[in-house]
């Protein structure tokens, strides 16, 4: 249980974000006589690259990451940092290959893009999957992580405290639209990073630095915890080939084809702001390994040297330390009062930014991809009203899922387990649609349907028959196998049902692999080509160092 000072700082922060969010939305609306749907859902397409990059990062990094990446650092070392550094490669793909089509086509949602490239059936299916994934992955899991933190630190009832936070987040998100979301996310990213740096420095200082930590790992015969890529015999279930083959399937869906993430790019002022904003996020994604994962590894060595008391965590059903609450334990044992309040604010930042971003994307898809498709003459006011209602319903449904999702021992594993079974067909139709002229609408539609059903079947088999081949296959390799099946399926079906391009679709695929690099670019370091090469080089060097 924490003191009044820390609780006061946390409450002050929540109120501050609420006020800033409301002012950001209302300030935008005072400039126009009538609120436009584009102004509400896409911030009038005026977003610049710093706001885009910070908002992308904030929407991605939730309380789940702070809590679960520290847990993974304690359990397996730097291994799960692959989800952070590999993201840089997919953000380069987003910037170079997808952003130009998204902005050139003037789409409001990614299902809208899929209809222009393929057909209406593909749009409807992606809308359904995207709304469902936003509710489960982006909102419900984040709520669960936030509830665990608030219960552990303050002794609050998990469901009541999360409901209060969600209502506050929903107020400024629903009132202010994407403008309020991006403004608050920019602030929340800074607070989140500050908090993460504080706990990282505290753990580093307590351990005495890098070399004492490494010495403990050597003595414990656990030096492999510093390696990002593991051998095939590693007991983590995530060998190097699973990372290299499996992560791109998850990453391309998440960063290039998920409405909750990409909506920030769709609100870009122009193509260069969209591209550089995505790359800016790629550079930010280098940080989590050092400020989210590494503190968990320091916690492991502090525990081994008797400098961190984990007795309050208890043990799991296998007799191992229940590491689910390791992050909150580090906060209470390594930081003084006052700084603990800052860390709580950082955790709330992750929670609120994730929820606000997902609610905004859900309301956008419901308004444009469902309501407007059935009522083409709907006014902007009607679209906004329907979007707000959808956000409220989505928030209620997410709260109802919390008891079910709490069964996962690792929240981060739970999220990626779900993604691994829904991403393959979506990644497939987007990749082939953008890079292959022959990808047909009928093939895309059938691939989405069959691939999704197959993913659900494999997911259920994994849970019902954990000792079978399906249950023993690492989830990222299963994602890769499902992707290969979907690719084969769409290619064969495209030959059986040949493509018939429309005036729109014939401009929505790359004619040459070099075309993405020929677009107009800013001079100097702001050139997206230079930034892409620099980001690629930095991540490759980091992998060489930590291999």
UniProtKB/TrEMBL annotation:
NCBIfam families: sss (TIGR00813). One of its GO terms (molecular function) is D-glucose:sodium symporter activity. The keyword Hydrolase does not apply. The keyword Transmembrane helix applies. It is found in: Membrane. PROSITE patterns: NA_SOLUT_SYMP_3 (PS50283). Keywords: Membrane, Transmembrane, Transmembrane helix. It comes from Sphingobacterium paramultivorum. This is Sodium/solute symporter. It is a multi-pass membrane protein. The chain crosses the membrane at residues 6-26, 47-71, 83-103, 124-150, 156-175, 187-204, 238-257, 278-303, 339-362, 383-405, 411-434, 446-465, 477-495, 528-546. Belongs to the sodium:solute symporter (SSF) (TC 2.A.21) family. One of its GO terms (cellular component) is plasma membrane. It comes from the Bacteria. InterPro entries: Na/Glc_symporter_sf (IPR038377), Na/solute_symporter (IPR001734).
């Amino acid at each position: 249980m924490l003191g009044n000072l820390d609780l006061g700082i946390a409450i002050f922060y929540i109120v501050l974000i609420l006020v800033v969010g409301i002012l950001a939305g209302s300030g935008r609306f005072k400039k126009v006589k009538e609120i436009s749907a584009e102004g509400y859902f896409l911030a009038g397409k005026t977003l610049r690259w710093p706001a885009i990059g910070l908002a992308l990062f904030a929407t991605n990094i939730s309380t789940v990451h702070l809590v679960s990446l520290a847990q993974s650092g304690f359990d397996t070392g730097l291994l799960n940092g692959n989800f952070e550094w590999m993201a840089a490669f997919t953000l380069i793909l987003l910037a170079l290959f997808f952003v130009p089509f998204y902005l050139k086509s003037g789409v409001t949602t990614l299902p809208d893009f899929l209809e222009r490239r393929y057909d209406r059936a593909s749009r409807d299916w992606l809308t359904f999957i995207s709304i469902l994934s936003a509710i489960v992955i982006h909102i419900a899991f984040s709520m669960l992580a936030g509830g665990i933190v608030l219960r552990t630190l303050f002794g609050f009832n998990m469901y009541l405290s999360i409901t209060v936070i969600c209502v506050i987040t929903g107020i400024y998100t629903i009132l202010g639209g994407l403008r309020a979301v991006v403004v608050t996310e920019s602030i929340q990213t800074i607070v989140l990073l500050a908090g993460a740096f504080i706990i990282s420095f505290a753990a580093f200082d307590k351990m005495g630095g890098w070399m004492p930590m490494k010495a403990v790992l050597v003595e414990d015969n656990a030096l492999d915890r510093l390696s990002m890529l593991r051998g095939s015999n590693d007991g983590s279930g995530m060998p190097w080939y699973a990372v290299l083959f499996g992560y791109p399937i998850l990453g391309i869906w998440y960063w290039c084809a998920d409405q909750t993430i990409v909506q920030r790019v769709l609100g870009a002022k122009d193509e260069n702001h969209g591209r550089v904003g995505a790359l800016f996020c790629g550079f930010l994604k280098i940080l989590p390994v050092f400020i989210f994962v590494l503190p968990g590894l320091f916690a492991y060595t502090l525990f081994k040297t008797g400098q961190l008391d984990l007795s309050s965590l208890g043990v799991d059903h296998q007799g191992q330390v229940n590491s689910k609450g390791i992050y909150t334990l580090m906060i209470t044992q390594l930081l003084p009062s006052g700084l603990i309040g800052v860390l709580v604010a950082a955790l709330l930042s992750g929670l609120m930014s994730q929820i606000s971003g997902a609610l905004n994307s859900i309301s956008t898809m419901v308004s444009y991809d469902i309501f407007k498709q059935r009522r083409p003459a709907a006014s902007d006011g009607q679209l906004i009203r329907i979007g707000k209602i959808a956000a409220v319903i989505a928030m209620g449904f997410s709260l109802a899922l919390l008891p079910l999702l709490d069964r996962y021992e690792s929240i981060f594993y739970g999220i990626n387990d779900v993604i691994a079974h829904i991403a393959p067909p979506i990644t497939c139709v987007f990749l082939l649609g953008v890079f292959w002229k022959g990808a047909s609408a009928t093939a895309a539609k059938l691939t989405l349907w069959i691939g999704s059903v197959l993913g659900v079947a494999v997911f259920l088999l994994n849970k019902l028959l954990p000792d079978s081949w399906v249950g023993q296959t690492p989830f990222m390799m299963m994602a890769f196998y499902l992707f290969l099946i979907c690719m084969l399926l769409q290619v064969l079906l495209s030959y059986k049902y040949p493509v018939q391009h429309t005036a729109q679709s014939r401009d929505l695929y790359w004619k040459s692999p070099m075309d993405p690099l020929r677009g107009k670019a800013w001079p100097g370091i702001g050139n997206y080509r230079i930034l892409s090469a620099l980001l690629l080089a930095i991540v490759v060097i980091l992998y060489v160092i930590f291999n």
